[in-house]
Amino acid sequence: MEPARFRVSPRRPHRTARAAAPHHAWERYDDATLTKLRFRDLGIKIAGSPVQRDIAQLYSDLARRGLRFKPHVWFSTEWFSPDGVPGIAIPFFLGHPRLRRLEARVAGRAEGGTRACRLALLRHETGHALDTAYGLRRRADWREVFGPASRPYPRTYRVRPRSRGYVLHLEHWYAQSHPTEDFAETFAVWLQPKARWRRDYAGWPALEKLEYVDELMREIATRRPRNRDRSLVAPLTSNSRTLREHYRRQAGWHGLGEQRFDVWLAAVFAPPARGRADSPAARWLREWAPELRRKLAGGGGFHPYVVDEVIRTLRQRAASLGLCLRHSSKRRSKSEVIALHRRVIESLLRRNHEEYWV
Fold this sequence. Notes:
Helix content: 40-55%
Order of helices and strands: HHEEHHHEHHHHHEHHEHE
Shape: globular
Number of domains: 2
Mean pLDDT: 86
Distance between the termini: 19 Å
Strand content: 5-15%
Strand order of the largest sheet: 1-2
């Protein structure tokens, strides 16, 4: 898609008071009526939206690190930083709580639904935008550390959960998918406030990448970017597709590759039965998540990143299948759920690879 060739200046958030969120007639629509709307008719803007505060935080983080670069942002249909444009597209459903609830119901989750997740994604995409702005991937030292950016981008990639050559930031061991993602993930870890990356990655080969990013950012901190294109790529304002059409296109992409745990899940949980008040497994897995983390990452000795990855995957798959608790005894259910998660983690680490879609 050709980028829209007009330029915008990001509105600076007010420093003393947050802008009031605008009201829209569609806030009261039911899902069926809401999804008949076209994207361009939603009328959402960054100013006054839930993400305005997050963008202000991102700019503050960059300034704290001495970087003068500030990527421009706009709403589109998904997260991305386009090739050739040093900016960040944010998915439409983060522009309003009503749209976020719709996304969660239809797609199973709203990526960036919590502030911590939004900031993690913004830091990652800023890494891509910074790469574009300064042409970092063309540097010989960048290629030596991360590999050639010209490497074909895979539709699927296989990861090594035990590898210490990559930082752990976004889900799915995303740094392992491609050199540009490796850089973006490393930059995101480096940018985090109060980051203790030297301590957290002590003894890891990934620490060398973080040290390189630290040196590189000091080098370019006060330089003006080579690429200052402020174009908007695939903005909502020019998208005539309806939300229903969008979700129909996306339907085939959710849950790909997660079916491999279905047999194990079915042994622990039960399908919903008619005429019975069932307890949704996904709801209980969400409530038990803190306890699962403590038992698996603390007492179990598994890396917290691996634990969170498995907890999230099994919860989403249980929701997709509509599974319910099999036993009335919560103690018995918890015991079986902990054993299930431990089995999945051990299987994953024993094979030392997993496949994910990008």
